[in-house]
Write the structure tokens for this entry.
Amino acid sequence: MKTDSTIEFLKRHAWIFILAASIIPYLNSFGGGFVFDDILLIECDPFYDDAPVFDSWKRTYWHGELSQGLYRPLSTFSFCLNARIAGKTSPSFRAVNIGLAAIAALCLFKLFLMLNLSFLPSFFAALIYAVHPLHSEAVIPSSGRADLLCAIFVFGGLIFHIRSRSKPVVSVLLASICVLFSFWSKENGIILVPLCLVYDFFMRPQKFLPSRVFIYASYLLALSIGVWTRISVTGAFLPRSDRFHHLSDNVLFLCDPVSRIATAIWLQCFALWKFLWPLELSHDYSYAQILPLKSFFDPAFVVSVSIIISSVIAVLAFAKKDRGKIAFLILFYVISVLPTSNILALTGTVFGERLYYLPSAWLCAITGILLFRSIHFLEMKYFSVIFVSLLALMSLRTALRGEDWSSQMALCIKGVETAPKSNKTWINLAVELAKEGRYEEAIAACDRALEIIPDLKMALKNRAFYNIKIGRLDDAEKDLSLLVSLGTKNHEVYNKLGALLAERGEFDEAEKCWSKSLEILPSQKIIMDAIEKMGKDRLSAEKSDGSFEKE
């Protein structure tokens, strides 16, 4: 009787618990500043200062030369509204993100109930989804909003699709809007239509065809609008792969199909581990931190596939009464993860925690079912203690993750701790150290990046510039000369090297460097003036640093 009254209490106040679980772990992340993608995506984009908000549908997600052919107008529109209403400040953007995360968790709870998971499994799953540390990269930084919006519209679309049995016209209209809005939020929103198909096929096969042709025609029309607007603005259906940093972000671009697919499948085991044991999290999993596998016979691939298969068998064996639901949820997970897995199409990163914000919903549902079945082996009071402790630990880990995102420097330090084999994390740390005038430490960080990739142009350039700052001109010249031999297209490299050569009286070589710089960027008056002055007085070696450098 006591248990029944407790469940009734939870049913009446479930939304309050889910709301609290969605907000409390993130309270200490409100005050953090813009970090990494936030800076270039929002803070440095003049569009969010005064552009008309509906121009969001006329531009790509990233602005100017940063554009990668990504088209997410609804996310851009939300950034615009955010900036207009509360200013272009990180706390306001983070507050909205946390609110959206709470909405996503509540939508997911409703969806689980409509999928007939019953109350307790749905409640457990929604709470886990709300507090899970793996989701921190999607919730905390402003740039994670695309994942949040996409998840909300995918969950909402499924809810309306299921409701179309009782209210066909209104529900189909709302579901069609969700199809369009999920795709406008982020590209992987395209999964909503396949998820609806899978639901109909498994949950109501007798009504699958032909009665639902009209419904799917509506969904495809909405998706067609999304595809048409995307192609109209970007000129292509897929993002521009030539704008991605393949060697740093996703080396799978450079791999053969077998190696790419083997690595992508292995990464699903890696993602599963991060879901089950999110103790060590990182904002960066670039090349060298995650190396591609060679073939399907690679031991890591064989072990990964074995773990995945054995895990599925174990879960199905443990929850015999829910095998159908679990198989259904596993299929939902597979569909949800495909667009960002590098299996069907290559993406901008080899792996990213934010990419699992939506797919992990189905893992949370499976976890909720397993927890519910475990009640049969424990007394309710013992189960309650264990479950509350689990939520508390995950909430604490999420809160600590919020501290990592508090500033650029904090995230850089955490990055090299959790991803020490990533050249990007060391370069990022070097940049932040240099901003504080800690050039010796910045050079050491560049050294670590170059240990991973010896000819990494960014690390060589930065190390050269830092050496100039502290007067190590010979070391700087070596790095700059190496960059020139590697065929760099960075005009500042030629400017700095030319200045060093002119300082030593090697005027002919200096002029060659500056001429090359002008070929790359013609509108450099200071360099043109330097060449002219050097031509007038080749015998004088007293040139001021400001005459030859372009800072």
Summary: Residues 2-404 form one domain. The chain is about 65% helix and 0% strand. Residues 90-114 form the longest helix (25 residues).
